[in-house]
Amino acid sequence: MKKKKKKKISTRIWKTLLIIVFSLFCFTILQVLAFKFVNPPLTPNVAWEWAESIINKQPEKRPQYNFKKMAHISPHLRKAVIAAEDQRFLSHKGFDFNEIKNALKTLIKKKKLRGASTISMQTARSVFLLSSKSVFRKIAEIYYTVLIELFWDKRRILEMYLNTVDWGTGVTGAEAASLKYFSKSAQHLSSSQAALMTAILPNPHRWSVKNPSPYLKLRQAKIMKDMAFMPLL
After folding, report:
1. What is the pTM for the complete model shown?
2. Cβ distance 129 to 103 under 8 Å?
3. What is the pLDDT averaged over residues 72-85?
4. Coil vs helix vs strand at 171
5. How far apart are alpha carbons 181 and 216 in whole angstroms?
């Protein structure tokens, strides 16, 4: 009797787990399919920062977020982002294994960790997940990257990236960043402004567009040089 009871309990647990996993799978598929056609009103990080500002009664710290269609974002910025963040964006399926291999070599030889995230991976992270450095979040990021590569085209992925990427404290997306750093819409950014704005992306909370260091200016110059060879989406 005890064995039968244990078996029943075990079967129930497994069934419950399978239902939960299947439900989550269906939810994420619907979520990604919905965002193929509908622009996200908020990102998880924007929602979190907004809630914090309300709880702490600090309206001045409410994040800036304003989704713009690709046609209303400067072509210079589109090229600059691909040049700086993911030059093989159009040729890979979400994961750049060349960059991953190079990152592993750097880690082994120099004991230094460097990023190998693609635009697709960063988009998955910023659209669907809260910022954290947990293993679970990394697994979820990989999972969502596979889904967006399956259901969205590259233009939609880039559009989502440009609108949801962290561009500094309280600043999310190209429009908010452009207004903050250059007091103009993202549609009107020049090539040098786009390159400088893109240059801070690896570390937007430390590097400054308004007071660029010599290193940042070198990054800007390199991005501008590479932009000439980048596709326009």
Report:
1. 0.90
2. no
3. 97
4. strand
5. 15
pLDDT-derived band at 133, boundaries 50, 70, 90 = confident
Contacts of 193 (CB under 8 A, 6+ apart): 76, 178, 181, 182
What pLDDT, in 10s, does the model give residues 86-129?
999 999 999 988 877 776 766 566 665 556 789 999 999 999 99
b/e per residue 87-106 (b: at least 16 CB within 10 A) = bebeebebbbeebeeebeee
Q: Which string of DSSP letters, residue by residue, matches 101-137?
A: HHHHHHHHHH--------HHHHHHHHHH------HHH
Q: What is the CA radius of gyration of the chain?
A: 21
- DSSP letters for 40-88: -S--HHHHHHHHHHHHTT-GGGPPEE----GGGS-HHHHHHHHHHH-TT
Query: Given this model, what pLDDT does residue 9 score?
Result: 78
Q: Is 149:122 a contact under the CB 8 Å cutoff? A: no
